[in-house]
Every structure is written in structure tokens, then in C-alpha cells.
Amino acid sequence: MHSPYAPIAETLPSNFAPPEAWPEYGAIAMPKSICSREKVGTDVPGIRWGVWPFYFEEYVGDAEPDLSLSAQGRLAYPRIIAWKRLRRHDIPKGWRVISRRPWRVDGFFELDHNEDYVKRWKKNARRDLRLWQESVEDGRYRIEEISLEEFLGAYNKSTVAKKISPELGRVLERKFALPDIAQNFVLWGVRDIKSGSIIAGTAGAYSPTHESSIRECPFILHQARATYASTGLMDHWFKESQKRGTKILNFTHFRQWGDPRDWKGFSEFKSHFGPTLAAYPPILWRVRPGKIF
């Protein structure tokens, strides 16, 4: 099935890069907790991970990975290599396309620091923001920066953690263990003033290199579903990013054909805030031999 979204080269700002390509993102923390992992490459950095005897390697960007450097490392066993491109559509020698499906569909919002960004949101999002602001003015809730411990304590009680996966919280914990990465993350929580508890939250990740930001690990507890807290957190992300001079807000992982049905609601929610959607080119693959022991 063809993607309904525009090719990424036709839509993206020239300085755009997905978070996996940011030096401030900590992609090495992404593989599941059970995996061994290491960084690979130099000019085109990548990550390698796996559990014996299955190992994988991944690069994100338009420059072809130098696979002579890939032969180095403690996990340089026989492995499958994935090259995820941004704008490039040719297929260099030795690489193969298995599926014509985009490797992901992202959305981006170019943040103009001289305008009211809310005007570019859909009508229902603007309405929900007004209702959220009323609850804040009434002193019922507030958004504040919170600790990793408090964030994860609330996240692990959420539907996201219980019904989908607690792994995103573990990934965040691994990132905060990397000082160079943790300094580019901020954790926001919605506090119920009466109870003192955190009822919703999200992490904001920033890349000074690419003047970009994403939201990670968003969650909401059952008691917050009627509060419009998710819209409040979205507005807080926009507002804080304006203050930081961020130019691109990246909404990752919009649902496309073949993705889990659970993504549909999340994608619909994100679409209310004005992002332009674009599809990355298909993944290129190759198998690389390596050491046996």
C-alpha cells in the first residue's frame, strides 16, 4: 500500500532530523532492557544491539554508513543492518529494499516566535485549551517541572504503562543515567492541587544542534481524563519551546497502514495541533558477517 503522506524531501525544513539522529537524544538507550548495546560508526553514528545469537545495527541519515567501521566493537557478530534515510531515494550497491512502506511517518511544526501558535491548531484543540486554562485559573491544577522519580511513579500507574508497555519509562530512566543526554530533557507533570498528586505528564527532549524538540513518554491517569490535561501539556511544550528558541517541533510516530491500531487515537490527537505530515523513504537492509564468539 502506498503512503498517503507527502515524500519527506518535499516538505521538511533543511535543518530537520528525526530524534534518533540527534547527538542529544541518547538513541543508545532505546533498545529493550534485555539487550546488550553499543555505539558504532563515527561520521555516520549508529547503534548496535541484541541478545545472542541475534544482533541488529541501525543508522539514521542520508550519508551511507561506512561498514568497514562497523566491523569493530564487542558486539560485531553476524547481524542485520538497517539504514533509515530522510530524503534519499536511491539504492546504493549492496543494499536491498524489503518493503516499500515508509519506515515512519512524522509530523513537524515550524515554530514562529512572532506569532500565536494556537491560531494554527484545530478548533477543538483551541476549545480544549480554553477549558484547561479555566481549571488552572480556578486553582485546581498546575503544570510544573518534576523529578524523574515522581514522573515514573505516576507514569507506572497509567494506562500506557499497564496496557501497552512500561518499557518507555525504562528507556527514559536509561537516558537520565547519561549526563550529556539528561541535560537536554525536562519532565513536566500536571499536579492536582487538592490531592497533591501528579495526574498526567510528558517529557520534553531538546536538540540545540537541530533547534528541535519532541515530546516523549506522555501519559495521563484515569482521574485526569476529564481535565483536558493532555492539551494543557501540549500547550506547555509549545510555550516552553518558544522560550528556548526552538524552531521545529517534531511529532513522531503517526499511524500508517500496518501500524498497531492502538496508535490511531494518539495520531488523531496529535493531528489537532497543526503538524505537517511526511513519510520517510523505505528502510534499506543488508546482512553483515562478523565474529562467531
Q: Element order, helices and strands?
A: EEEEEEEHEHHHHEEEHEHEE
Assign the structural class, choosing from mainly alpha, mainly beta, alpha/beta, alpha+beta, or little secondary structure.
alpha+beta
CA-CA gap between termini: 41 Å
Total helical segments: 7
CATH architecture of the largest domain: 3-Layer(aba) Sandwich
Care to count the β-strands?
14
Instruction: Please name the CATH topology of the largest domain.
Output: Aminopeptidase
Strand order of the largest sheet: 1-13-7-12-11-10-9-8
Q: How many domain units?
A: 2
Largest sheet: 8 strands, mixed
Determine the CATH superfamily of the largest domain.
Gcn5-related N-acetyltransferase (GNAT)
In the CATH hierarchy, what is the class of the largest domain? Alpha Beta
Roughly what fraction of the amino acids lie in strands?
25-35%
List low-pLDDT spans.
Answer: none
Describe the overall structure.
It is a single chain. The chain has 293 residues and is an alpha+beta fold. It has two domains: 6-104 and 281-288, no CATH class; 112-246, Aminopeptidase (3-Layer(aba) Sandwich), CATH 3.40.630.30. The chain has helices at residues 123-137, 148-155, 159-164, 167-176, 179-182, 229-244, 263-271; strands at 6-7, 36-40, 46-51, 54-60, 79-84, 96-97, 105-110, 141-145, 185-192, 198-207, 212-220, 248-251, 276-279, 284-288. Strands 1-13-7-12-11-10-9-8 form an eight-stranded mixed β-sheet, with helices on both faces. The termini are far apart.
